[in-house]
User: Fold this.
Amino acid sequence: MQRGFSLAEVVVAIAVMSTATMAIAQLAIMSVRVNRIARSTTVATVLAVQKMEQLQAAAWAELTASPPDVLDSNTDGYCDFLDANGRTLAAGTSPPGGAMFVRRWALSPIAAGNALVIQVTVGPVHGSGGAVVGRGPEEARFVDIKIRP
Assistant:
């Protein structure tokens, strides 16, 4: 009677351990990616809410209707760029170095000019154009209405 494991048993045990280790490694990699997206989404949401509050608090005379498609492209006066911590780096049409987010807003008059629809979108900077590509998981969009006092 021999004691110990046969070669076949050792190979099967190593295969099972290798499979389990690979599954755990993939799970760890996925959790890092999801945490990065969650952080980016949270920062984008806070930045969008800040701009929405700023626009809601602005005097009526300071707000002018925006040109069409300002939410789809960087339009001077309706766009700014922010770093990873939410600090404003610059306004304009092209992102400066270190820009992580692009924030765009639109103001559309309704009800014979007695109200404005305010839309704010914040998303990650993609490429040199600072475009927000589609509605991704890292993008925040808010819509509100401001009524003339």
